[in-house]
Write a structure and sequence with these properties.
- The chain has 18 helices and 12 strands.
- By secondary structure, the protein is mainly alpha-helical.
- 49% of the residues lie in helices and 9% in strands.
- A 3-stranded antiparallel beta sheet has the order 1-3-2.
- It starts with a helix and ends with a helix.
Length: 464
């Protein structure tokens, strides 16, 4: 049986690109948490190390049981909130316990119990001047266990006997944990130096507009790879010129590394990942947040269509809040549909609105602060249709969606005018009469100034 060399090459390239996408989605990739993806990374380690360094300037370290992709040069684009398995964020208290737990476990070898670890965390917090005690009440214990759950999800900590959930429910219950010290040391990629505060540390990591062309092109590739949409108007003049000159070369390099397509438009550039890629939140999605976000984007696109090419359009805050309330508020009918399904958690309206706006902002579809938000042109790709569930806002100036027929027949569905209107009620007849009078006056003025009486046929009339 003959071997198809092209098929072998295509399969090899596909495996490498799948491994690269897995690392972009999970910079800390452990054998325990992602065995299939880690096996791919181990199989193509040399290619991945070289390509990540060459294309994005990222350092990749691959050990026996984990791989760590160290991203640099960007802050907001590559960092995201740490979340639980259900998608909810870790609280500030839980993040404090995560940092304290890491400080203890990176120097420890061998198994440890949940209760003994809690005692060591309490002593470490006291030494650092931090008021934190995992044994002080249910609230503190839950935050402490949330940090442990996150380390288990990463594959850096393993439950040997007993469970963390049992200890969270009852402080007397103990559980034995096995830490992976090397993986734990890789959880934090950039260790802050002594004497460096958080703001200074983050500022030093950002270099969005390098002077040299080579560094500037690498920065553009990072921005394209880590950002849902790169809008040209948000770039500096130097980076905008570089994007115009090197956008196709950057698209080729990123396509070879990640197996993605590049969509280049006048307003910006976006990478389109394959379905299995998880480097960004899936959108659209079927969960309440994704469902509401998609409905909101389509409604605002239909409502704010400027009728001309533009990179963004303003979104009135009142329109935004009314739409959110109609599409996912406490009285929205869709909430009953969500309740009947066995899907994820249904957030309360206020939290739902916050998550929707955060999602759309992160995807580059919505920009600006409250009161000065703008819908970007990229939103139009998801459709543009005014949602009938959103009530109309009265007296909104020249952009008002309130029409005379709506006030006369408020019970009629949107888009349906009065049935069989009488001619005298049709404003177009009045406009036609006015236009006829103005045309007659204009003809008289032309005849008076040119000597043409208007009785002789013109060229068009004669030829017709």
């Amino acid at each position: 049986m003959e071997t198809n060399a092209y098929s072998e090459d295509a399969a090899l390239i596909g495996e490498r690109q799948a491994a690269a996408r897995a690392l972009m989605a999970h910079p800390l990739l452990t054998r325990a948490a992602h065995p299939a993806e880690f096996s791919l990374v181990r199989s193509h380690n040399e290619w991945l190390v070289q390509r990540f360094q060459r294309v994005l300037g990222y350092r990749l370290t691959i050990a026996d049981d984990h791989a760590r992709l160290v991203k640099r040069g960007l802050v907001d684009e590559v960092t995201g909130p740490i979340t639980r398995a259900d998608g909810s964020r870790l609280t500030t208290r839980a993040l404090t316990y995560l940092a304290l737990t890491l400080a203890v476990l990176v120097e420890r070898e061998g198994p440890v119990t949940v209760r003994s670890l809690a005692a060591t965390v309490r002593a470490t917090a006291h030494e650092a001047g931090i008021d934190a005690d995992p044994t002080r009440g249910l609230g503190e214990r839950r935050s402490y266990c949330a940090a442990l759950f996150h380390l288990v999800d990463l594959g850096a900590l393993t439950e040997a006997s007993g469970t963390i959930a049992a200890h969270q429910a009852d402080a007397a219950v103990d559980a034995e944990l096995v830490p992976d010290t090397e993986a734990l040391r890789s959880v934090t990629a950039h260790l802050p130096r002594a004497g460096t505060d958080a703001d200074a540390f983050l500022a030093e990591a950002v270099d969005a507009d390098p002077e040299s062309d080579q560094a500037g092109e690498v920065a553009l590739r990072r921005l394209l790879a880590e950002t849902a949409v790169v809008h040209r108007e948000e770039l500096s003049d130097r980076q905008r010129d570089r994007l115009a000159s090197h956008q196709w070369r950057a698209a080729s390099a990123l396509g070879n590394l990640l197996g993605c397509d590049t969509e280049i438009r006048a307003e910006g550039v976006a990478l389109v990942m394959s379905d299995e890629a998880m480097a960004r939140p899936r959108f659209p999605s079927d969960d309440p947040v994704g469902h509401t976000a998609l409905a909101l984007v389509r409604h605002l696109s239909g409502l704010s269509n400027p009728g001309r090419p533009t990179t963004s359009v303003p979104v009135p805050e009142r329109e935004l809040q009314v739409a959110l309330e109609a599409l996912g508020g406490a009285d929205a009918q869709v909430r009953a549909e969500w309740a009947r399904t066995a899907g994820p958690e249904i957030p309360e309206p206020e939290r739902l609105f916050s998550l929707v706006l955060e999602l759309l902002t992160g995807l580059g579809l919505l920009r600006g602060e409250p009161g000065a938000r703008r819908l970007t042109a990229a939103a139009a790709r998801y459709g543009a249709e005014v949602d009938d569930r959103v009530p109309r806002i009265q007296d909104n100036g020249e952009d008002s969606r309130t029409h005379p027929e709506d006030r006369t027949h408020p019970e009629q569905p949107r888009g349906s005018g009065p049935q069989e209107p009488e001619p005298r009620d049709d404003p177009r007849s009045d406009l036609d009469r006015v236009a006829s009078v103005l045309q007659a006056v204009a003809n008289e003025k032309v005849s008076a100034t040119s000597g043409d009486t208007g009785d002789e046929p013109g060229p068009r009339e004669a030829s017709g």
